[in-house]
Amino acid sequence: MYLRPLAWTLLVLSALLFCSSISANAKEAQPNEDPAIEQRMKTLTEQLRCLVCQNETLADSRADLAEDLRKQIREQIKAGKSDKEIIGFLTERYGDFVLYNPPIKKTTYLLWFGPFVLLIGGTAVLYRYLKARRELIKETPLTAAERKRAEEILRNA
What is the pTM of this model? Predict the structure, then answer.
C-alpha cells in the first residue's frame, strides 16, 4: 500500500518534468503582424543559410542562432531597410557563407568549380591507369603443351 502513493507521486512529478522540458524547448511563435512583412521575411530567409545546420535555409532551421537571425531580419524589415541592405549586413557580418547560393567571384571559384575539376582530373587519372595496365598485360596464345594441359583439366573436372 505504501508504494502506491509513492508511485503516483513519481508519475505526477515525471509528467510535470516532461511538460516543463517541452515548454522550455518550444520556440516562441512570432505574431503575424503584417502579411507583407511575413512574406518578405520568408523570401529573405530562404536565400540565407543557417550557420549552425549549414545544409538548411534560415527559414527551415530550428536552431537558436537561426531564431536570433530571423528576429534581427524582422527588426531590420520593420526599420525600413531594403532586402539588399539586410543581405549586405549579414554578408558583412558572417561572410558569403551565410548566402545559400554564394556569388561566383575569385574567392569562391574553388567552391563552384572544384568538383568539376576533381571529376575531370579523376577521369584523366583513371584513363591513364587503365591504358598503362592494358599495355602491361600481353596476350599470348597458348602453347601446345598448355593447351593439352587445359583440355586435360577440363575433362577431369
Answer: 0.54
